[in-house]
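Example record

Each entry pairs one chain with its bound ligand, NAP.
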Amino acid sequence: MELRALGSTGIRVSPLGLGTVKLGRNQQVKYPGAFELPQDKAVSGLLDLARELGINLLDTAPAYGSSQERLGRLLGHRRKEWIIVSKVGEIFENGESRFDFSFEHTVATVERSIATLKTDYLDCVLIHSSGDDLQILEHEGVLDALRELKRRGLIRSHGMSSKTIEGGLRVVQEMDVVMATCNLDHNEELPVLEAAYAHDKGVLVKKGLMSGHVQGTGGVRRSFAHVFAQPGVSSMIVGTINPAHLRENVRLLEQVLEGSA
Ligand SMILES: NC(=O)c1ccc[n+]([C@@H]2O[C@H](COP(=O)([O-])OP(=O)(O)OC[C@H]3O[C@@H](n4cnc5c(N)ncnc54)[C@H](OP(=O)(O)O)[C@@H]3O)[C@@H](O)[C@H]2O)c1
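Structure tokens for the complex follow.
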């Protein structure tokens, strides 16, 4: 897969990224069916397969249970082959989420993620929104903290996984990358994607397969075609722990991108 610019960050990402919620968390998630967390051997195989297929982007978060700890352990010396996106603000403990967007918590979270992932930098850190995007950006310390961490060289870029149009538009003005929802059933945030394109900001699409509620191979193909018809999409992050789905997603996406080239 041909790499794409993540806005003007200088980072290049594969158009399909691997979401890693399902590597570390199976409680309080909105997937169609219950699932067991995969064993280490299966996760290693999935990561190898992803690299082999041309995927270089991993999306993780401290709120994804053991995702970061497992990635840190299993990536080992191959960390530099990956672009790692992590998050700050959501804490998932004892089956429940809470949020902290303070300056101090943001710095401590990034330092801990770097240690857990056994690396010395993160390629991108997103604010993991609770839904009050503007309140978080305007009244909390997280934005200043991420700017400071970027100056210190601990993170290469920053952004927000936003939930509102107003929030997404503000992210485009203030930050490097926006992560927004776009799928066959959810097009409310298209103005955010358009603004990001106009301002040369990175765009990561989440929930592009409706968190797995998409119907069959035809539905997956239509979902990719829909997302990549939007100009400026850097990468669509798809979560899977099924190697056959990973292969199918790469094959279908390549067909879609070749068709639109
Ligand atoms: N920041 C946020 O607030 C936020 C929220 C949600 C997600 N995210 C990020 O975005 C990623 C993707 O979001 P998501 O996991 O909610 O939604 P998604 O990528 O739309 O859907 C993932 C689901 O689709 C299934 N799937 C994948 N490929 C498939 C295929 N070819 N055929 C049928 N089913 C398929 C997966 O099941 P199998 O495992 O069986 O393949 C999984 O259950 C997450 O992993 C996470 O990294 C971020």
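The mean pLDDT is 97.
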